[in-house]
Amino acid sequence: MKSIHEIPITSLYGVGKAKASAYASLGVETVGDLLYFFPRAYENRGFTVPLSAAREDIKNAIIMTVATEPRVSLIRRGMSLLKFRAFDESGSCEITYFNQNYLKDKFHVGSTFRFWGKVERQGKKISMTSPMAEAYTESVPLPPLASIYKLTEGLSQKVISTHIEAALTLARESLPDYLPERIREKYSLCTLHFALEQIHSPSDYQSLALAKRRLVFDEFFLFAAGIGRSSGETQRYKAPVCSDGDVTPLLNLLPYKLTGAQSRAIDDIRRDMAQNIPMGRIIIGDVGCGKTVCAAAAMYISVKNGHQAALMAPTEILANQHYADLSPIFERLGIKCALLTGSLTPAKKRRLHEQIASTGEDRIDIVIGTQALISEGVKFSDAGLVITDEQHRFGVGQRAALSERNNHTHVLVMSATPIPRSLALVMYGDLKLSKIDEMPAGRQRVDTFLVDEGYRARLDGFIKKNVAEGGQVYIVCPAVEEAEEEAEDEILFSDIGFDNYFSKEKKEKTPLKAATQYADELAARMPELNIAYVHGRMKVKDKDAVMERFVRGEIDVLVSTTVIEVGVNVPNASLMIVENAERFGLSQLHQLRGRVGRGKRKSYCVLVSGTPTLAGLGETATKRLRTMCNSYNGFEIAEEDLKLRGPGDFLSTSTSSAIRQSGDIGFKLADMCEDTSLMTDAFSEAGALISADRQLAAYPELSQEINRIFAIRSDVIN
Ligand code: ADP
Ligand code: MG
Fold this sequence. Notes:
Number of helices: 22
CATH class of the domain at 246-436: Alpha Beta
Largest sheet: 8 strands, mixed
Bound molecules: adenosine-5'-diphosphate, magnesium ion
Oligomer: single chain
Radius of gyration: 29 Å
């Protein structure tokens, strides 16, 4: 029998070409995709109110009976109205729909519906426009929660629900529960069928929470099992042996001596690359500790032994920077080095592709670039090593794909984010670790202060002073635009806990400083300065253009969201201001701080609390931020953050937000912060299962599911 993941969406009744392409734009191509296309929120229609108590500002559920036959009137060409009256014991209401004449057959006098929508009042008159209406009988209660899907043109909530209904029917016959029964029972997880049914049309909160719990467990479990399996697998592949590990000629060209930690990391690399199995290593070390030169050494070893090497950075700016730093050194060593990014002209790209694939004289040995490196058309003639920089922007799947594409090369990853051991599997369970826990000598300390709103005027003065002295300023804000009010009548998916939903308090929020608005206000206060902003919702090209201008010193103050977090080097930047600092994880703050103090200028970091006074911050937040003022070691700071807030928060604010942004890991529901204990359980079960039976011979359905998920992940990047 065909798996639902192989059945195209068009095989569902009512899905033709147009709907299929609408679905495709939502990433839904198979029946399986549709089943895993979860609602983005739920509306609570279970709380019904009498018409007299219905509100105008939010949607209400009102049970009313149709009082008059619907009448259709044409108001102008192409626009018709359907009107009727409905009532409950508290009053009556006029209901109007536009251009939906077919509803005439739905609303018969005497039939009862649960209407869902806002009401309008004019004097005593009450009306509703285009409310949702579900047929209602007292004996069969309607489910209290209605699923809300992300929509796109051509697909309405109703249409999606209908198709999902059909998909669920198919799943009942052809979707195996791949999770070993023993594990399901041990953690009191519901069946897969129940979970999928309830996530789409929950009968109540409790079932919905059960469903979510099972699906979250599965995401963690499948992920961990997949990683566990593939990390064992790389051992079976052959990688080029690089027995000449002498990097002295390269080191001789550097204007400095390596730190002990750098030397140790290079030793690790040298040893790994001399083996005939692929290296899988990650270098973790604070921003500025000098990881790039370790990468350079690894590439040098690869080339020296006759193989090419690639260095992939997450952004074009970083790729440019690496190229500018490294290509002169490689050139002096007689090594051909090229830059490959998305902004090259097609002709140049083609030429580069040829040179990379060449086996002749014109072969390029080292390629530095962006994701363009793993795009179609890039084929190395003989790659020995691939390196990804700031790896938290790349997923395990991407990493695997890059290596696989090139016949299992050595792999080196560099990251500035120390992450707790318990969660390390998620990010790099397949890699061995080299820690760089030592800074080059003479590095300045970035003095760090914690202040509140009362300091604003002085802070403005400080900004001006830094610029007047020739420095540049970063200001980081947590949000892009003024936070939108959350709709009161929607329950966001993330709000569905495993405990009682109702007991969950709404989190208190401090007003967020928004990058765009902030930049405007600042510009009004300091018209003499060049102020610009960047944020994650800007087009990459525009964002990069602003960043480039900042790098060139044409911008004095750069207001941004955390997009600047990843290793851009602006030695002239002397002040980092972080607004709503309590919103950030310590490790992230530490990385942000690492953006300044990279040159000769004495540099500062100012953490501004989102509360009017520091007293309003709360004990833990204050302690955390004080840690930033007192500690300058990334590993130490990560430990402290762990202690104070647990692993969840640590990840929520640093790595996992990056993961979520890039969809790297592909968790749809699971939140490593909220669901830490479930994650730990899922990881340990997956680990045990894999080490007992790597091929999962006893669980073919599980094995198949893992294959499917991991295949998708490496597809995504192609
Ligand atoms: P990161 O680890 O953040 O990627 P980089 O590799 O960009 O750090 O190094 C930061 C700066 O420190 C670079 O300008 C680099 O030339 C310099 N650097 C690296 N290693 C040393 C060292 N051992 N001594 C002095 N400066 C160094
Ligand atoms: Mg770096």
